[in-house]
Structures are given as structure tokens and as C-alpha cells.
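User: Structure please.
Assistant: Input sequence and predicted structure:
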Amino acid sequence: MALDTYEDVWRSVKQHVPKADVNLARLWVRNGFRELAERRRWSWLIREGQWILPVSYTTGTVTVTQNSPNVTGASTVWTAAMEGRQFRVGTGQIYTINSINTSAQTLVLDRNYGDAGGGGKTYSIYQAYVTAPNDFLTMLTAVSMSDRWRLHLHIHSDELDRRDSARENSGSPYILASRTYSTNRVGVVYPVIQAVGTGPDPTAVTPGSYTGIDDAIFVVEVTTGGTVTNAIFKWKKDGGSYTTGVVTSASAQTLQEGVQIYWPASVTYTSGDVFLVRVTSASAPGRPRYEVWPHVKTEKVINFLYVARPTDLNDDGAALPYAVPGSTVLEFALAAAARWPGPTVQDRNPYFQINLENRHTQRAEQQLSNLERQDNEIYESDTMYQDWDYAPIGPIDAKWMQSHL
């Protein structure tokens, strides 16, 4: 457990500076902790993660239309798990799948299809790009365990453009290249509203994440009455065409762009009843996205270590790290308190003194030096290792290094 809690520290600030309200005391503590946390690559900010790259999916054929993001599959079995993966027809442009309508076997790309359209085209769905975790700050190392080597970092996708602009190479990965930032959408799915009829309602999965770029209304209509698995419905988004003949289920059914509904069991649904599901669009802050090269078409696991961003102490479940005493964070917070003149010109803060600010800053820096020394004893971050600069280009495992030292 931490030596002190967030509440312990901000209450101590209040004792020193009674004129500060609770929100201001908390802000000083939060900012003080963030300033401390961002001073160096602390061992308590190192996290472990993994990306599981699936087998490339190529079953069936597709129909694509130039200048349209909509793709229709034939003899395909696309699942919601494929959302976010990459889509490619032959050796053409690479797109990211925004959403999949699993019942109609259609999908929506992240941008309009640019090559020549047509039907009966062969394609592939695989994972070329991977997204960093929510708390990601910087990458330390990435390893393909099955290949027994570390992936090269500090390379950008524009360098790959010079080596393999058409991305024709596939196989075991040995480069993790910086690419772009993700454009995840986290819109809101609202509860079902009955527009026609008086029968029982389906249930929207809320809170849900709507991934579409525009606000919309989903229309759901019961076309064959009965109990779950007997009743049948159709649905559409806004003014689009209906997806028909969908059998009701007590499990969540994906309509489109993350919108899901289910039909509670033990009730009878009425033919002709119409329901509406309202959704609103919203975007999430982007996260770094990497390109795995060569592109991987077989199942592969990439393990990685990264430095996380420090938590906001106001977040649910947040706590001071075990290695950080509250007294150090308190010094940073009191230095800020000593710079605060007070609520108004007439109502001055008695703690507002330059000498106090200097004293707390000096104490904070002294304690910070001790924390850095202790952290080096736990996790030496200044050690340098032989790099691969002299190694030949290509996939090389640890055996090469062992035989060439």
C-alpha cells in the first residue's frame, strides 16, 4: 500500500492553506504528482502488453464500388471482431474496417474505396496496424516470441514507403514502425423507444459505443411475431435499406457500427411493432498506432513493454504509487499554494510568500533526488546495451548476436 493516500495529502494542504477550497487543494496535489511523475522514466510506470495478430481472412469474394466506403461480401462469414482490422483487395490500397453488419455481410471502410470497383473480387482481412494502450506514453521494447527476436523501433512508416511502398512483403515481423494516431469513436447508444405498437421491447446494449461519424436513428421492426428465436425482425439505419429476415436472439446482436440489441426471453413479440434506437457520435482522443512490417498473415503474438502516462489522482481507483511518499507530493503542492495570492485582492492568502515557495521547491527537489536514487536501485534505466546497427538487414534472432560478439 502507499504510505499516504491522495485524500491524506490534499487534506494536509487544506490545513496549511485554509483559504483554499477543496477543489483547489486537490488540483495542486494532482499537478504536483504529475510534475513528479513526468520527471523521468520511473519503474512504477512500466507496463506490459501484447497484440494478438490473427490469421488473414480470405473466404469468399467482395463487391466494391469506387468512391464508396461500402463493401458487400459473398460466401463470407465476417464477425464483429474484424472491426479495426485492415482490408485489401488483391495488392491494392489498404483500408481500415470501421464497422461490420454481420447479418447482412457488409462492411464500411474508413474512407472511400479508390481503386476500380466491381464484384467477385478476392480480398484479405488482416491486422497490419496495432494501437497502443489507453495509458500509453512511449514504447520500450517489442518482441515476437515465436521468432525469438526483438522488433526494430524508431522507424516511421515513411521509411517503409521507400523500401516496400506497395507493402508486398509478408511473413515474420521485424519492424514496428510509427504510423499515425487512431481515430476511435465512442458515441452513445440510447435506450430503445417504441414508435408503433404496444408489445414488449427489445433492449439496446447501453452503455454502448457507437462508432459511426454522424448521429443517427436505427429503426427496428418485428415482421414475424412470436417468442425469441421464433420472432423475426428487420432493421435499417436512417433512410437506408432494410436488412430483413433477422431471427431474434436473447444474446446481443450487432446491427451496425457497434450498435447491439437483444430480445429478452419469456415474452411474445408482436408483428408490426416498430422501435427506434437513437445514437450520437463522439470521438475519443487518438492513440499512437504502429505498423507491423512485414505484414503478418499468420497468427502471431507480439509482447511489448511501454512507459505509461501517470494516472490522474481523481480517476476511480487511482492511488499514489508505493514508491512515492505523500510528503514529496505535498511539497510540490505547497509550493503551488505559496504562489497563490488568494481568492480576491481583499481576501489575501497568508501563505502567499516567495520564501515559502522557494523552501517547498527546494525540499521537493531534494526528496525527488532520493526517489530517483531509490528507483535506480530497483530498475537501472541508464544501462546501455549493444544495438543491432552493425547487423545485416533482415530477420535475425538472438543466436546471431551470440555468435557474432
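The helical segments are 6-16, 22-37, 157-164, 326-337, 354-378, 398-403.
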